Amino acid sequence: MKIGYLGPRGTFTEAALNAMPAASGSEKEPMPSIPDVLDAVRSGNLDAGFVPVENSHEGTVNVTIDQLLHGDPLLVSAEAVHPVTFVLASSRPRGEIATVASHPHALAQVRQYLRRELPDADTVEVLSTAAGATAAETGAADACVCAPHTAEDHGLPVLDYDIGDNPGAATRFLLVRRPSAPAARTGNDVTSLAVYIRHDQVGALLNVLTAFSVRGINLTKIESRPTGEGLGRYVFLLDCTGHIEDARVGDALAALRRSGAGLRFLGSYERQWIDPPLSPLPGMTDEDYDAAQSWLDALRRTGESDR
Ligand SMILES: O=C(O)C(=O)Cc1ccccc1
């Protein structure tokens, strides 16, 4: 199995992929950008792609989300959550640092540090933290923000360790592939989907949310992105706990379908966060659904209910 990831070597994405048991034994190929990774999956050059999607403090990596929303569909088969710690690295003395290069999400997570320590330095956004290290090594930038081991690999002295504004920041990554049967249900799963609500209906978003809440399904993320059709046209990205094989999740999706909402299923996969999953509401387990279906089947056959 060949997995492409946001490279070059030394990115946080690479470190997160190497820590993933499901990826051990796979051939891993660094690619220059997130769209490069996902397009290579679409074209069949890669079996899977591994990209950052969200940071605990900086929020969503929009380029990843937009890639999943537009173009040929892709399916998420796994997620990984990985801690991120940043260093400032440079071969120049502190007083000579006029430019600092890194990935926009890394720069955003050290904003307060840079304002405090290097208030006059300009930031330079590049495609990854490892690309920032290359920029600092070649002199295209004076310094970079990257992982400690990346500074070492590029022969860059570390001027400051642990410079993140939020200790404990973590990034969530997704393993994606071309659509096929979703990952197996584990009992601790997340389902991601994009919902295109009806714009000619008042309360359309509330109806979508209600489809989840009445079935006791916990939403863990909701985010809107422009559809690209014009102002006021948004698509909603939802993450909920549960698997499409869970009766209540399948039932919620079927209800959305009946309501006329457009759906792009983005995958059901094992959840990797520390929060314990919430128990289903009474009457919402698969067993409850099965028992109610058997009761209805019998009622339709015999005309007899149980009271
Ligand atoms: O640039 C990297 O190293 C990446 O893998 C993207 C990223 C950037 C900042 C935090 C987490 C991931």
Number of helices: 10
Q: So, the CATH homologous superfamily of the largest domain?
A: ACT domain
**What is the CATH level 1 assignment of the largest domain?**
Alpha Beta
Instruction: Tell me, briefly, the overall form.
Output: elongated
Q: What's the domain count? A: 4
CATH topology of the largest domain: Alpha-Beta Plaits
The total beta strand count reads 15
* Strand coverage percent: 25-35%
Mean pLDDT, all residues: 95
Rg calculated over all Cα atoms: 23 Å
> What's the architecture of the largest domain, going by CATH?
2-Layer Sandwich
Write the layout of secondary structure elements.
Blueprint: E1 2-6, H1 12-18, E2 27-31, H2 34-43, E3 48-55, E4 59-60, H3 62-69, E5 75-83, E6 87-89, E7 99-102, H4 104-109, H5 111-117, E8 122-125, H6 129-138, E9 143-146, H7 148-153, E10 158-160, E11 170-177, E12 189-196, H8 204-213, E13 219-226, E14 234-241, H9 247-259, E15 262-270, H10 286-302
Parallel strand pairs: 1-2, 1-3, 7-8, 7-9
Antiparallel strand pairs: 3-4, 3-11, 5-11, 6-9, 6-10, 12-14, 12-15, 13-14
The structure holds 3-phenylpyruvic acid.
Walk me through this protein's architecture.
This protein has 307 residues and is of the alpha/beta class. It folds into four domains: 1-83 and 170-178, D-Maltodextrin-Binding Protein, domain 2 (3-Layer(aba) Sandwich); 87-160, 3-Layer(aba) Sandwich (D-Maltodextrin-Binding Protein, domain 2); 181-274, ACT domain (Alpha-Beta Plaits, 2-Layer Sandwich); 281-307, no CATH class. The protein is built from ten helices and 15 strands. The strands form three sheets. Strands 1, 2, 3, 4, 5 and 11 form a six-stranded mixed β-sheet that branches. A five-stranded mixed β-sheet has the order 8-7-9-6-10. A four-stranded antiparallel β-sheet has the order 13-14-12-15, sandwiched between helices. A hairpin with a 7-residue loop joins strand 13 (219-226) and strand 14. Helix 8 (204-213) packs antiparallel against helix 9. The longest helix is centred in the C-terminal third of the chain and has 17 residues, at 286-302. The protein is elongated. Bound molecules: 3-phenylpyruvic acid (PPY). 3-phenylpyruvic acid (PPY) binds next to helix 1, strand 3, helix 4 and helix 6. Its EC number is 4.2.1.51. GO terms for molecular function: prephenate dehydratase activity. Keywords: Amino-acid biosynthesis, Aromatic amino acid biosynthesis, Lyase, Phenylalanine biosynthesis. It comes from Salininema proteolyticum. It catalyses: prephenate + H(+) = 3-phenylpyruvate + CO2 + H2O.
